[in-house]
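Note to self: keep these together.
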Amino acid sequence: MGRKWNNIKEKKASKDANTSRIYAKFGREIYVVAKQGEPDPDLNQALKFVLEKAKTYNVPKHIIDRAIEKAKGGSDETYDELRYEGFGPNGSMLIVDALTNNVNRTASDVRAAFGKNGGNMGVSGSVAYMFDATAVIGMEGKSADEVLEILMEADVDARDILEEDDSVIVYADPDQFHAVQEAFKNAGITEFTVAELTMLAQNEVTLPEDGQAKFEKLIDALEDLEDVRQVYHNVDLGE
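Structure:
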């Protein structure tokens, strides 16, 4: 896969550690999926997925409970899911997913973040074709061979299984996300270091030192936007 998922997640966790921004974004996403379906994860697969992801980011229980209760309370607050595509320094590519209650504000903010940091927005489809939607699930305490055996016994397919630091990371098709998790849970594995759907670049690029510094500023500017829920890119940021 050409990337160390643990390093990526650790960098993001470190960046967000001193703020409540990541929790607020999860609260918004949990509210939206709970409102769109049943506010019960056993009856709402989308909610179940978001809660599993929130767990790996240590989102406090009161944030989760408040968002679900808000959805149960019949709030009329509505959000649109948006996707922007663009280019950063040295031809780097980015996909920006947003969840917003003000489309014009979000579009303006995202465009400004690109423009002020050496990038520019592209049209829909200009970048996404270079990425693959992927389920990523990681755990500690197992070897790659043990994980493969668990999946084979459950007759579940994976694209790749890699050992990264002290974890094993499974990459699978998005529609296999819940099947992979259930296979592990049936094998007694209930704690995951990562459990989410993402967009992985088919090919990563390495930027020169000055280009990487500019690129990281662009990433920070986009991730700092209130409405942005996730930023995907094709740059190898190293370790």
